[in-house]
Specification:
The complex is a heterodimer of chains A (about 130) and B (about 325). With about 130 residues, chain A is of the alpha/beta class. Chain A contains five helices and five strands. In chain A, helix 3 links the parallel strand 3 and strand 4. Chains A and B meet through helix 1, strand 2 and helix 2 of A and helix 2, strand 3 and strand 4 of B. Bound molecules: guanosine-5'-triphosphate (GTP) and magnesium ion.
Chain lengths: ~130, ~325
């Protein structure tokens, strides 16, 4: 039986508003996905543990604080350490091109800029997980 | 036969690997191939956890209470498994599972495992496979399992088949007791919790519930206690946990624990047989073809659905006799 796509939408870092991540969460729900939302100020350790307990297919990081070069690689490292390196990481925020390049090299999935249409994120996930509904 | 990936997963699960635990919950949640075998393998490991259901209308503070209850259990060195159910959107089939927002202090505690579930098609607000998810957490060794469900008003008898004790959470704004009675919440509660009792009207609500319970035909000699709490500060949560422990003792001493378990096992076997039978019947192309013919007969008004059903049953009986 095809399983539903499960996505963790994570909001790490210190910046204090979650409007963006909630809009994306709703968009993904409307696309038929099961979205786990855990609130603000998540540490990489919290995100990695949650991803494992919830057995998600992907983790979407929403970062505005500019700490992406720390938070994304650290979360990916922890996932790997916990035997969950296969969980796809993607993200959104204001991320300079050269940082994106470096993160992609580390194996990070697509990083979306501000103002991205939800449709693009949905299409990206559907393409990555064709056997999920 | 177990597939090799599944048996490797079971092996990792037995060695205490949390990733394997998470994955096995997915396996049973999705009823994927191997779910029956997996659950059968895990069954001998289950039955040790105390399972508590927390239900009530949206927003009354269930998740906040779950977090505080879990913290208290952790202080007593008991491990905690949490299954938090949120509704599936009937429009898209998707869901936003947000109960974790109230529980961040538990995320990195190795003695806690939280799993969010969407209700999917489940009746009574309970996810289809909540019971099985609890079985996995039970087998993994969690002492105390809390199931949070959306109490949207309809009677949630499903919880009773999953939890040992069901707590109904209400708030001073929940409305009068008659409304709650109508919603079916009064019947399923073995404990009642008046949360947000920092607000006006908590005492009045508690009294109303007590008098309502006085009218309820007492089942099995247990009088449901009414506990006032403030989820945000944790006030009263120790009294709630103590009441839960009293209910557990009562269940054990009155032999209800094993009587209920026996009832659950019976229901479970029946469900499994029904599922298998259904599958067996509808997977046969002959039956499908005969069904199609009968549908046409009803559509052309030469038969009725009732006669068609009788004919199909006869056909299935004859057909399976041939097979034997
Ligand atoms: N004043 C007050 N607010 C509370 C109390 N307990 C919880 N809350 C608040 O009530 C709101 C809802 O709390 P949740 O724990 O998410 O409620 P819930 O019942 O799990 O909600 P759903 O899962 O969406 O049905 C939050 O803003 C809490 O901070 C309390 O005892 N007093
Ligand atoms: Mg909740």
């Amino acid at each position: 039986m095809a399983r539903k796509l499960r996505i963790l939408m994570a909001k790490p870092g210190l910046d204090g508003h979650d409007r963006g991540v909630k809009v994306v969460a709703r968009g993904l729900r409307d696309a038929g996905f099961e979205v786990i939302y855990t609130g603000l100020h998540q540490t990489p350790e919290m995100i990695a543990e949650t991803a494992i307990q919830e057995d998600v297919d992907a983790v979407g990081m929403s970062i505005l604080s500019g700490a992406h070069m720390v938070l994304i690689p650290e979360t990916m490292r922890l996932l790997k350490e916990k035997g969950a390196g296969d969980i796809l990481m993607f993200g959104g925020g204001i991320i300079p091109e050269e940082d994106k390049k470096e993160l992609y090299k580390m194996g990070c999935g697509k990083l979306f800029g501000p103002g991205t249409e939800i449709r693009e994120i949905v299409d990206f996930l559907k393409e990555k997980f064709p056997d999920r509904t | 036969m177990l597939e090799s990936t599944t048996s490797r997963l079971l092996e990792e699960f037995r060695s205490g690997d949390r990733r394997a635990c998470g994955r096995l919950v997915s396996v049973v949640e999705n009823e994927g191939r191997g779910a029956a075998e997996v659950l059968s393998e895990l069954y001998p490991l289950t039955g040790r956890a105390f399972r508590v259901g927390i239900t009530g209308p949206p927003g009354v503070g269930k998740s906040t209470l779950v977090e505080k209850l879990a913290r208290l259990c952790r202080d007593q060195d008991r491990s905690v498994g949490i299954v938090a159910v949120d509704p599936t959107s009937p429009f898209s089939g998707g869901a936003i599972l947000g109960d974790r927002v109230r529980m961040p202090s538990l995320f990195t505690d190795p003695g806690v495992f939280i799993r969010s579930m969407a209700s999917r098609g489940g009746l009574g607000g309970l996810a289809m496979r909540t019971r099985e998810a609890c079985d996995v957490l039970d087998a993994f060794g969690y002492d105390f399992i809390i199931i949070e469900t959306v109490g949207v008003g309809q009677i949630e008898l499903d919880i009773a088949s999953t939890a040992h004790s069901t707590v109904v959470v209400l708030v001073p704004e929940s409305g009068d007791a008659i409304q709650m009675m109508k919603a079916g919440l009064m019947e399923i509660g073995e404990l009642f919790c008046v949360n947000k009792s920092d607000r006006q009207g908590a005492d009045r609500l508690a009294l109303a519930i007590e008098s309502m319970l006085g009218l309820r035909s007492s089942q099995d000699g247990w009088k449901p206690p009414v506990v006032k709490t403030v989820g945000t500060s944790g006030e009263g949560v120790d009294a709630l946990l103590a009441a839960l422990e009293r209910h557990r003792s009562y269940l054990v001493e009155s032999d209800l624990m094993s009587a209920r378990r026996k009832f659950r096992v019976r229901v479970e076997i029946k469900e499994l047989v029904e599922e298998k039978l259904k599958q067996k019947i509808w997977s046969r192309p002959e039956v499908d073809a005969r069904l199609a013919g009968l549908v046409d007969e009803v559509m052309s008004e030469s038969s009725t659905p009732y006669r068609a059903a009788a004919a199909l049953l006869e056909f299935i009986r004859a057909d399976s006799r041939e097979e034997v």
